[in-house]
Write a structure and sequence with these properties.
The complex is a heterodimer. By secondary structure, chain A is mainly alpha-helical. Chain A has one domain. Helices cover about 70% and strands about 5% of the residues of chain A. In chain A, strand 1 and strand 2 form a beta hairpin. Chain A is elongated, with a radius of gyration of 20 Å. Chain B is an alpha+beta fold. Chain B folds into two domains: about 425 residues, Sodium/glucose cotransporter (Up-down Bundle); about 160 residues, no CATH class. In chain B, strand 5 and strand 6 form a beta hairpin. Chain B starts with 6 loop residues before the first helix and ends in a 6-residue tail after the last helix. At the A-B interface, helix 1, strand 2 and helix 2 of A face helix 2, helix 5, helix 9, helix 11 and helix 13 of B.
Amino acid sequence: MLHEPAVPVEKDHAIAKKTKLGVIMFFVYTLIYAGFVVIGLTDPELMGLEVIGGQNLAIIYGFGLIILAIVMGFIYNYFCTRFEDKMNNNSTT
Amino acid sequence: MIYEVSNLAIIIFVIIVAFVLGLSFYFARKTKSSKSYYAAGGTIHWGVNGIAFAGDYLSAASFLGICGMIAFSGYDGFLYSIGFLAGWVVALFLVAEPLKRLGKYTFADALDAKFNSQSIKLAASISTLVVSIFYLIPQMVGAGDLVVPLLGLPHWMGVVIVGSIVIFIVATAGMTSTTYVQFIKGGLLVIFSTVLTIYVLQHGLTLTPENYHKFAEVEAVVTNDTIVTIPDSSYHVESTVVAGKMIFVKLNTDEYSPWFKVNTTDGHTLLEEVLSTTVTSNGEKLFNGSPQSAGKFFQVGHLSKIIVDGKEVDKTGPVGPFEFIKTLENSEVVRFTKKSFTDGEDHVTVWYQNLTSGKAVMEPGLKYKLSKASGATTWDKLNFLSLMLALFLGTSALPHILIRYYTVPNQRAARKSTIVAIAAIGFFYMLTLFMGLGAMVNGVLDVESSNMSGPLLAKAFGVSLFAIISAIAFATVLGTVSGLIIASSGAIAHDFIDNYLKVPMTDKGKVLAGKYSALAVGVFAIILGILFKGMNVSFLVGLAFAVAASANLPAILFLLFWRKTTAKGIAWSVIVGIVSSIGIILFSPSMWDRYGLIASDAPIPLDNPGIISIPLSVITLVVISLLTQKDNATKDFDR
């Protein structure tokens, strides 16, 4: 094959589980992101509604989307690492 | 605007540039192979790569563009921060690890990994070049904007300086030096943006920013709707212009000839001074009726009312981040709105005061019309949807970002470096709201260049901070342009010359081809940066995202997740994505305006093409793949 990776890639037995988890988490985040866009399109006045601590929905939702991406990233990494440690170590022993 | 050049700013700028060049010299000695040139040998630590991702991604659009857009349009600018960051979710959950498994040096390698198809190689190399060049233009324009206040040089010199330094960085040591330049710049940008935000919060909110120009108000009488007379004999009306529903008058004073806006309330008329530029029939440009050197063109943006706990106050003192937002939302901001008209043979542009409630600033709507009350049409809503779609799907389709996955040793490192990037970039994007709003109310805005809002905010807190922030902003451009030129040189030398044309080359020859390609793209970028002076940085980057999301993302995702995808399906979807997205952009209202035509006459009333071009690319891929299934029957894929 002409396009082999720049460095050799080890055999990974956790690909299927990681892919499934990634797709699920992608859809969860996409749904929440879509909610933000839909509110903007259908009921933009709702964005000015005070939600918590004097902050409106636009601020809470906007900051929430950023923080959620970071938190979901850490969760995804935690589970992927566990899958890799478990499945790749099992296969070599 | 006239900027005073700071010696400290020049010294810090020179130190950063010297450091970057030294780094390139150091790594140049180690760059002997194409693996080292294009992928830094695949040996970069995931932590370094993660911050380098941030350095690569947080371009002029993020620091200069978003801060400027928030400073001028409030929350609507922050939509870019949200969309730009959300795009990384697609990269992490769907693209990072598979791409690392599939690719070698470039995006085209990954796309072509299963097919070894000539049409994919050609389509992907064209796509990489087109997207990278779309992205390069605003970076170079931003570099030119920065050197004006930083070094006191003309715009074109800034473009030439950035282009020359970047060609040197890339052509000497390729991806290794690019990685460390991006790492250092990414780290510095996040740290000093935090410092600037702390300054904003410590300073709090005030009705009277330091050294702020007090805009004059003059009593007047209006008769027959448009005849303006002034009781005060020290003013003389030179000219009266009706522009839409507004009336502007040019007054003559002893010192200069500013324009005023006529405000009539309950039969009482007050003239309110505006900012103006006038291009006279002989080509001379006047600022508030005076030559630029007279210094009559002021920095603006202030609060007209501050409400804390239901009471009006003059200033707040230091505030916390949420208190800052809450107080601003309850207060009243003076923004400056642009209006152009002709006065005889003179072309006049004015920026008049526009009282805006803090509530309107802190929710979507000032830039993107969404509510019925603001007169939003279906096309306005589609524009918003299209932008949010392009930002979400564009990140993981940017070739200069994707190639960074090949610089780390394995898939786990690719994933971890993406998470470091999301954390650093997400934190930075949260800061953009405070920096942008800080610029909006602290009397620092240059109405002619929203891009300078962040650095000018820093200047309000001291020349040292301005010098450091500006030098980092300049390094920001260096880091991103380096990544773009590496991606472009890979598309030309590796994808097109080596893989598509199959020109026989030794490994040393491949490195040389990459360096010559970098030189050619660099020179081309310099020319574009000079030609496109004055274009909005964030707007152009938004378009680059739309082109990337249309041309590349359907191909990547279907390759990974749909077994029936064929080589022809991928190649055609890439081409349809490029042609449809660029076609829509060329016939959009913004481009019509740029051609000097009436924006509302544009054949396609969409500014961002994603809502049409992304589905079109997907449909093309599916239909062509289904029609060419027999191609896959002859191949044995390991899926």
